[in-house]
Amino acid sequence: MLKNFLLDLIFPRFCLGCQKELNLKTASFICEACLNNIALNSGIECHVCGLRNKNVRNRASNIICRGCRKKTFLNGLFAAGKYQDPTLREAIHQFKYQSAESLKKPLTELLIRYLKKENLIEKLRCPTPDTPGVGHRSCLMPIPLTLRRKLSRGFNQSELLAVEISKYLNLPVANFLKRQKFTEPQAKIQDWKQRKENISGAFALSPSYPLFTRCRTPDKINKVILVDDVSTSGATLEEAARVLKEAGVKKVYGLVVAKG
Fold first, then answer.
1. Is the N end or the C end of the chain the one with fewer CB atoms within 10 Å?
2. Residue 157 CA neighbour count, 13 Å, CB half
């Protein structure tokens, strides 16, 4: 805390949107006005073909078009905003590559605003189990980083977002996935096929969490919400969802701050 206070005195912070100097009480790098100006996505659409879902009452279960369901491992993808938004894009870049940890708060706020606007909070939220000894059947799962990349950044940005979101959805955060190979950053690869090849085989189940192999256990996880900062081609989320589906998880959703 003292370190951050001294840094703010020596190197004052400026809003990523309007470039206005921020006072010491501002918790992040975005002023309230610019945060409110970030446009949230409207409606739920199939992330495969882009067709908007008109079945408002049953959004969380029938998001993917019937003809697209065989083309994806995800049961749906929720994105708060568009990566093309300059302020949102810069915030994600600073959060991800410049270790601006305080941006987890406003980025989570955007996610929660979006989920509330689309009436998805209750559909994704997990009620506290009534049966003693029975755990949650749903969880938030951040996309994992390799140890090398996590050490270089200082944290896993997806994990920070998942922890913040868990407070609103009453869902536990579970690190059931591990990164088993170092890959090139997806942002540096433009071709969709190359992105898919790059991330192929990158994830595996963590051996310390055997719940997936116990098909009859009462607290077997049957719904996972994968959390990441941004989705462009969707290859990373698809690969993680593939591993989970093959392990027996029935439903896997993606939740990201922005979609490219």
1. N
2. 24
Express each pLDDT in 62-97 by its tens digit.
678 888 888 899 999 999 999 999 999 999 999 998
CA distance linking residue 105 with residue 86, whole number of Å: 18
Of 191, 174, 155, 166, the residue nearest 240 (C-alpha): 174
- Of the candidates 1, 33, 8, the residue with the CA atom closest to the CA atom of residue 19: 33
Cα diameter, the chain: 58
Report pLDDT digits (tens) over 16-59. Answer: 999 988 876 666 789 999 999 999 999 888 888 877 765 544 44
Coil, helix or strand at residue 187: helix
Full-model pTM: 0.84
Give the SS3 label for residue 188.
helix
**Domain ranges, ordered by start, for the chain:** 25-128+136-184+192-259
